[in-house]
Each structure stands twice: as structure tokens, then as C-alpha cells.
Amino acid sequence: MRQSHRLNNIGLINRDKVITFNFNGKLYQGYEGDTLASALLANGVHLVGRSFKYHRPRGFIGAGVDEPNAKLQVTINGHSEPNINATEIELVDGLSATSQNCWPSVEFDIGAINNFLKRFFPAGFYYKTFMWPKSFWYKVYEPFIRKAAGLGVASLERDKERYEHKFEYCDLLVTGSGPSGLASAYAAAKNGAKVILAEDKPRYGGTLLTDDVSIDNMSGKDWSEKIISELKTMPNVTLKNRSQVFGYYDHNMMVMFERVGDHLSNKSKYTPRQRLWYIRAKETILSTGSIERPIVFGNNDTPGVVLSSAAKEYMKVYGVLVGRKPIIFTNNDSAYETAFEFKKNNVEPIILDTREEHDSEIVQEAKNKGIQIKFSYGVIVANGYKKVKSAKIGKLTKDKKSFESTETINCDCICVSGFWTPTVHLASQSGNKLKFDEKIDAFIPDKSKQNEKTIGAANGSFTLQETIKSGFKTGSELSSKITDKNNENKIPTVTETKYSVHDKFWCMPLPKNENPKRFVDFQNDVAVSDIEIALREGYRSIEHVKRYTTLGMATDQGRTSNLNGLQMVSNIENKIVPEVGHTTFRPPFTPITIGTIVGREVGMEFMPTRKTPMHEWHEKNNAVFVDAGAWKRPRYYKQGNETLLEASKREAKNVRENVGICDVTTLGKIDIKGPDAAEFLNRVYTNAWLKLPVGKARYGVMLREDGMIMDDGTTTRISENHYHMTTTTAQAANVLSHLEYYLQIVWPELNVNVVSTTEQWAGAAIAGPKSRDMLSKLFPDLDVSNEALPFMGYIESNLFGVPARIFRISFSGELAYEVNVESNYGLFMWEKMMEIGKEFNNQPYGTEALSTLRIEMGHVAGPELDGRTIPQDVSLDGLVSKKKDFIGKNSLGKEAFTLENRQKIVGLVPTDRKSSIPEGSHLVENEKAKLPNLKLGHVSSSCWSVENNNPFSLAIVNDGKNMIGKKLFAVSPLKNTSIEVEIISSHYVDPEGKRVRS
Amino acid sequence: MLHINCPFCGLRAQKEFAYGGDATVKRPEINKEVSKEEWDNFVYMRKSPRGKHIELWHHISGCRQWFKVQRDTATHEIFKTAKMSEEIV
Q1: Half-sphere exposure of A836 toward its Cβ, with a 13 Å CA cutoff?
Q2: Diameter of chain A by CA atoms?
Q3: How confident is the model over A627-649, as a mean pLDDT?
Q4: What is the pLDDT of residue A582?
């Protein structure tokens, strides 16, 4: 297959390796080292997409990150991704790409009818049109607009690729490997600094690869290769190509996006596709270069209109001609080099220079080469629908507002150059306020805000001599501050053409009686007329003009359009550009994949999984697990075809009738030691702690300073100055931070230390009327009688040789114990309990049965202690000391907290004794009342009472116990249920609490 | 992401820390009478200054010490960090 527009003998591609790829269902060939864009252009393909709003045919404009049009749906390795810049993706075996935003095909797109209706789609069209009727927005307009807009299609399948994160520190990060980047990285490396040099493209060198210059008698490309090969040998240098620094954050942290795997045809299983780097640099050099600015003219979006620098890059790097009959349309000298390159490859260009006839060095050179130049000329309209066929050009009058004459000339591409825009995004993100440089008509960085320095073209210096000099100087200065070394560098001699002044002219006037679209922002289809409308309608701030017209809001962030937009606003408003100001530059500089942001934190790796020492046993015994924070807890142990409800009923019933064991390792455990430990607990908990004897446990409630309950649990006095605190599983980390806060900040005079021991102890609760019998078998030498080990008692013993702590505490309301052993013995303890418990019909029970047991006893837990309840609300008034002070006490006197009819805990049963009440249901008096129906309370916890064999719930309801006996409706709009309930006491089982003390 | 100098561990990434609010707020003394107004000020009233702010941070994924940070709330510049026992002036 012939590549119709490929040149011989030029380019940096590997012609030995032919790559076949698929574009819109057709096979093409390119070479290794091509981008998808250069390979398509080599085959003469310009039409690659349809525009966003008008569905106009679009082709390539740039050759890199500046490209606004060529966003394709690209599939590599079966992985499909939308909105990929064809100018950035490298050609690889098996690559297949399709055009976006067109149907049925890019060649024939039905949506292009919008182009003929374009006068009906001005700026603000959507805002103005889809306002009324209001109800239409949600159901009619929005779905329709959403379908019509958008670019590619995101895959609904799971992303199977691997993405990684990397954290790195360095002395100096250099962003961009053009002349200034290479010089500064080299100088800093020579001073021994730890340097990272990042280059967005696969090849290092930036403009050195395309500019006609000589450095120390070498071509730019050879010089850059020499510097790179030397840097590669230095251990203090990290070179990263295909890596875009896209964000500059606080404290000199940069985030970089590295394309690791997409260009490899044989990628190993463990090679990530992309990698995100977090780089903390002591100093940063921003050598990000500049992007060519287009000149706006009629139908300037026709395929075949390209930036002149891109045309040159396609020739010099890829050996590709963008056309054989080029017009070079420029307001400055730099585009002349593109003309020379065409000429070198036997193509005759014609230069249209908007400036009046002048005789600079480069004009002379063009004349010597016999290139035709038309001064004071510009392109008025590009003709051709899917490809440029000819151009109407005109000689501008002196004021440049109309034409002296016009003519039409044939051409197949228009290479346009409107001078250069420094890439200041990173500098601006760092907090640097930009300033307008009238010499170059663009914004450049002002005073450094963080440790950043911008050099080279990014700083508005467009001569190589100056750029290389400042590169060496800055690299050397910044690094010697860090390394204290000052290596002398010989600044190379540079030969380059001297440029004359550019023309301050960026928008061609319209000819009489013609009104072609003149696009400013290609990706969002924003034309000159749209900006005019916005200004006419009163939008003045550039930020408002941006949002109203969507100028610069596309994925290319207005890289080629912002300055032209600003210039237009300032022209119409008769202001100078710095008065208009610029819009905000935000990260990311280029779009990055969600996969890279997420990295490896997907699926099981999203967060750590905490397993108890008994986890393996639970797994083997058909436990169904539930997540409790990072913990996995058995929810129930499934027998046969049991449902959750059946299993939890069986397990809970067995606790009430026989004995059950529950893995309570996940409870938070905090060791508290020190002579002031008792005093500390006395301040932390609402109840009194000073008189708790050694060998006794106590239940306590702790508040926040605003009076709301923070957590509850038992704390046991192990010895004189040593306490063992338990917290709920969910609050363990918060309680530790809370205790540390008071010990370190509020009461540093208290001599107390706290440390988490959650991971150190494995715990098992033994609950049920037969638990004492079972315990006596587990500890045959121990007196476990009610007298020796009473309710809230504590004993240390050993479990078949393993040291154990035995607490007589109960969450289930039954006679119960909790045994702790060192974590390593957790499984041993559990298996012993299962073995010895057999004769007492012992069964393990999970969190569902655990909840059932505590709910029907009226014990509160997380759903009741939700940060909105004070002790009085949940029947814990008895634990609030009136005598002593404690955290949050002063808040409890608040008027709202002492109201007679304040919300309080109650119990609920459905009047039919059958219907389960969904948790979260609202309690209302009249289920049929008009909305908003006054809510009297809410259902916090629900279970099936095994004791009474009917549903039972806990609820927090206004006026609390005074409501007992009343009937209300529990309404759940989520479950679409409404259940009549009767309010009863929250203590549904054993209200006197006899069992725990038996 | 901020780079915070823990007075005990040195420069660490923000990820390791938790923010703890205004460091200049003093809790009324325990076991002492406190006016309703003073108490409410302590519990609820916080200034939200633009500029220098002395605040608490907790090195939760490190030494677990609370300490003071003087930070500019607008620019995120950190001027000083100090142990709780030290003053920032």
C-alpha cells in the first residue's frame, strides 16, 4: 500500500517497521514512530471528525497537545477509549480508531444539518431556548441535549488495564526538553543535583527537532541527542519521555502523567498502561515552550488548514507532506521556515504575509530561494467542504479593515501562523500572576510564587541564543543553591536567523456580502460572531464571555483559541488585552484517564481488608461476611438453604436458649496507663470512675463537647494504674484521636498514656443461659460462680496454657462473658470453644443475631448513637453524673436538650405483629396526610424478636415515653411501605435486667 | 497537597495528617463554673480568617502527636510548626 503523502529521506520514523492500522473500518499503513495523525496524513487522510455543535468536517490543526479537532475513539488491546488526541497517540500494531460525533459516518453525517441551521444556534442558544416550560427540562430537553452533545463513548466494561502511582522527590524538576529544558537540566545535573527531566513527546528535543539552527556546528537534533545521551549516563538524572507534567499544586508538588504501555506492541502482563507521578521538587524549571497561534479567517476550520509549525513538524519528524499546493499564511517570520522546508522537498509554497513589504533576513532568504511572497495579503475564506480546494485571498487596505482586491487561488492546504503563545499553564497554576508582554502580545509569568522559574519560549524569549543561555544559567543557579557546587559550563555558540517584528493582526475582516463562519475555538465551535453576540448582550468580564460562549472550555482548554478570543474582546471593547485579563488556568493541562487517577486502588485494593484471627474458621464454616469499616465480620453462618432472616433467628434463639459465641475482635481496644488514668476516665465518661475497684468493669458513655453521645463501651480496671477500654468497632479510631487530643492539648498535666491494642487481642463473647457451664469447662481450675465472677467482674486466667482475660459483660442481655487472648491464640481459643461448647449446644452467631439480641433488649448502638442524641434521648440518663464535670457536660443544660417533649427512644411493634418495619422509616400520625407530613420520629433499628416471635423496632420519637400506647404509621418512601405500629417500651425482653446478673 | 513539617518526624505529605481546627481555642477549665456565653463560644464560635491562622494538626499515620501549624489559609503557605508545649508568635 502506497502512503501517498510520505516523503523519502526525511523524518525520524523507523521505515523498517511497517504498522497496519484501522481507521473507520479501512486499513492503512504507517511506520513505527508515527503518531496516528502523521500516519493518516501520510495516507492523505485529513477528514477525521465532525465538530461539536455544527457537525462540520474537521481535520488536523496541530501536531501535539495543541490539537483541538482530532479526538478519536481509539481501541488498543481490546481497550476502547474516547477523545484520544490523534496527534499524541503513537501508532502501534492492532490499533483501531473511529471518528466521533458523527452518524452514520464521518463522510456523511446527518448532524451536519446543524451547519445549515447555524444561524439558529448562536451563543447562548441553549440557555435561551430550553427555558420554558420548566417541566420540559428534566424529561425532554436535557436527555435530548445530552445525546446530541458529547464526543466519544466511554466503555461500560471494567477497565482491565493496570495503572500505577509513584511518589518521587527531587532537587530539580524540568518540564519540557526543548533547548531551555535540556540546557538547564544539563547544568543542574553537572552540579550534582537530583534532576528529573520530563518530556511530553516520545522524542526529546522539542523545537530543536524542527528548527533550522546550528549549535556548536551541530544541527539542533544532533545537539539534543548529544545532551540526552550524556544525561543518560548520569546516575542523578531521571529522564522521562511520554510524560506530561499536568498540574502544579501547593508546596511545589507536581503531578505527572506517564504513558507507559500504549505504544508497546508486546506489553508484559505487569507493565502498567499509564503511571501517575507525584513529584515533590525543591525547585522547578518550567521550560514548556510555546504554541503557535492561528489567524482567524472564513471557514478556517476546513480540513487542510493547519498550523505552520505543525506542517513543518509533519515533514521533519514524520516525513509527511500535509499538502502539495500549500499556502503559507502568516503575520510573522517563523512560518517562512515552513515554506523553506516545503521547497526543500520540491513543493512550491506561496507565502501570504499580512505585513507590508519589508526586507528582513528571512524575507531575503525566501526571495533568494525563489519563493513567491505576497505582502499585505491574507486568506479571506477557505473553499472546499471536506478538504481545502482553493482559497479566496485578498490584499488588505492600510487600515486592514477591508480589501483592495481579492482573487481565488488553488491550494490543498493552508499553513497558518499568528505568532507564538507561551505555555504558561503550570506557572499560573503555581500561583504566579501572569503579566502581558506587549512585545509578543501574550501573557508570560510574572514574579515566582513558589519555587518555580519559567525560561525559554514559555517565558516569551523566542531566540535560541537567549533561550540556551538562560537555560544554562538558571539550571546552574538553582542547583548550586542545593548542592553547593558550581560547575563552569561553556555556553555553546548558536547560529540562527534573526527574526523581524510580527504583525499585530489576528482576524481577517469579512468581504462584502459574505458571511462565512470564522472560528476562534475549534473544539467548542465558537466563532467570531458568538463573541460579538456575547458582548452585545452585555457580557463584559472575560470569565462571563467564556462561559456564555464556551470559548476555551473544551478539553483542549483553549490552547489555540484563548488569546485570539481575548484579542477580539479587546478590539471590540476598545481595551488593551491586559485590561480584559485572562481566564483561569486549571489542572489538568491535558486530559488524563480516570484509571491513572485511581491507580491500583480498585476492587480489593481500594482499601485494606482487616480480618480477625478467626477469619479462616468463619470462612470454612459458611460465614457470610459483612463490611464493618475495613473489617470483615461474619453476618451469619449459613446452614443449608437458610436465608439471612432464618439464620439470624436460629442463631439468636440459640443464644437465648443455650449458648452462642461471637467473634468480637473488631471492637476497639485502648490501653490506658498512668497514675492519673482514673481522673482522666472520670473526665472522659459521663459517669463516675474514681471508685472503680481493680478487677471490675464499668459501662461508660462519652460525649462530644456539644453534648452529643460520641461512643459507648466498657472499661475495665486491670490494675491500679492500668485500664482496658473498649469502643465500638466504627468509632475506634476517632475515640483514640479524641483521647489523644485531651491528653496532649487540653490536660497535658495528666500523667496518662493511651495506645490502641485492637490488633493485639482476639475476643470472643460467650452468651446464653449455659455460658457459665461452658466457661467452667473452658477454665476447669477457675471458680466462675456468680460470687467469684459477678456481673461486671474481671479475672485473669489461662485457657489450656494460654493467658486469657475474662470479662463478665453482656451486649446480648443474657448471662455472658467475653474472653480475650493474644491475637496469635485467637483461632486456638475459638476452636476450643467450639469443641467444648458442643455439649451445651453452642453455636457461633454473627452480627445479625447480635443486633437482634441487643435490639430486643433495648440496648443502643450505632443507629441510635448517630451524633444527634444526648444521653437523655436514649435512656442513659442514669449514667450522667450530676456531681462531677466531664467532657460535654455544660452543653447538656441547653434549652433544647431539656425540653419536656424532646425526642426519646421507644420500642415499636407492628399492629399486625407480622410486617417488618424498614429501618429509616418516618413516624407520622396520618399516613394519608398531605405533604409535607409532619414527622414525629424515625425508626433506628429493626429486628425479628426471637423472644416474642414478631417484628420489633427501636425508634427515636418526639415526646418519647409519653407516647407509649399510641398508634402511628411507619412510612418508608424508599421501600414504598406504610405500616401501622404501636409504641411500647424500648425494653422488650427482660426489662429488669435479671438475666445478666443471674 | 501540603508538605507539613511535623515537629517530631520532619517533613511529611499531608496524607499522613488530620486537620484539627483552630489551635487558639482554649477549653474552659474543668470543674469550674463557666458562663453560658463562654461555653457556647468555645463549642460553636470559630473565626474563619483569610491569611495567617494557627491551627491544630494530628499526625495520625505517624507519631500520633497533635501539634500547631501556622498557615496562610489563602495561599496555604506554612510559616511555622510547633509542639503543643511551644508558642507560635
Answers
A1: 21
A2: 115
A3: 96
A4: 84
Mutating which of B57, B59, B66 best tests the A interface, going by the most A Cβ atoms within 10 A? B66
* Segment A44-55, tens digit of pLDDT: 999 998 888 888
For B:1-20, CB contacts with A below 8 A are 1-3, 13, 18, 20
Instruction: Read off the pLDDT of each residue in A76-100 and give the average, rounded to a whole number.
Output: 91
Chain B CB within 8 Å of residue A791 CB: no
Tell me if A891 and B34 make a contact (CB, 8 A cut-off): no
CB-based contact B66 A746, cutoff 8 Å? no
A843 pLDDT higher than 90: yes
Distance from chain centroid for Cα A198: 22
Q: How far is CA A557 from the centre of its chain?
A: 18
Asked whether residue B89 is domain-assigned, the answer is: no
CATH number at residue B59: 3.30.2270.10
With contact defined as beta carbons under 8 Å apart, do A336 and A365 qualify? yes
Grid cell 517570520 is found at: A333
Q: Which amino acid is at A630?
A: A
pLDDT of residue A526: 93
Average pLDDT score over residue span A761-789: 97
Instruction: Say if the Cβ atoms of B78 and A431 lie within 8 Å.
Output: no
CA dist., res. B42 & res. B34, Å (int): 11
Kindly report the number of other CB atoms within 10 A of residue A502's CB atom.
22
Structural domains in chain A, CATH included, are 14-128 (3.10.20.440), 163-290+422-495 (3.50.50.60), 294-418 (3.50.50.60), 607-666+759-845 (3.30.1360.120), 668-757 (3.30.70.1400), 898-997 (2.40.30.110)
Nearest one of A288, A390, A868, A947 to A649, comparing CA atoms? A947
Query: DSSP letter at A137?
Result: I
Angle (CA) A796-A798-A799 rounded to 5° is 130
Say how many CB pairs under 8 Å bridge A and B: 54
Q: Which residue of A has its CA nearest to B72?
A: A250
Closest CB to A251: pick one of B2, B27, B43.
B2
Q: Does A431 touch chain B (CB under 8 A)?
A: yes
Q: At A421, which amino acid appears?
A: T
A525: which 3 cell numbers?
465551535
Q: Is A447 on the interface with B (CB under 8 A)?
A: no
Write down the mean pLDDT value for chain A: 94
Q: What is the pLDDT of residue A832?
A: 98
* Predicted pLDDT of residue A942: 97
Let me know if residue B88 belongs to a domain: no
Compare CB distances from A683 to B18, B30, B58 and report the shortest one's residue.
B30
Give which of A504, A502, A525 is closest to A571, Cα–Cα: A504
Please judge whether B2 and A250 are an interchain contact, meaning their C-beta atoms are less than 8 angstroms apart: yes
Query: Which of B28, B65, B75 is the closest to A744 by Cβ?
Result: B65
* Interchain CB contact of A749 with B (< 8 Å): no
Q: Is B64 near chain A, with CB under 8 Å?
A: yes
- Per-residue pLDDT band for A379 (boundaries 50, 70, 90) equals very high
Say if the Cβ atoms of B27 and A891 lie within 8 Å. no
Note the ipTM here: 0.98
Cis status, amide bond into B49, omega within 30 of 0? no
pLDDT band at A720 (very low <50, low <70, confident <90, very high): very high
Q: Give me the pLDDT at residue A128, please.
A: 66
d(CA A155, CA A590): 20
Do residue B84 and residue A890 have CB atoms under 8 angstroms apart?
no
Determine, yes or no, domain membership for B66. Answer: yes
Q: What is the pLDDT of residue A136?
A: 67
CA gyration radius, chain A: 38
Which structural domain, as residue segments, surrounds residue B68?
Answer: 3-27+34-83
Instruction: List the beta bridge partners of residue A937.
Output: A923, A957
- Over 90: is that where the pLDDT of B33 sits? yes
Q: Degrees (nearest 5) of the Cα angle A443, A447, A453?
A: 85
- As for how many domains chain B has, the answer is 1
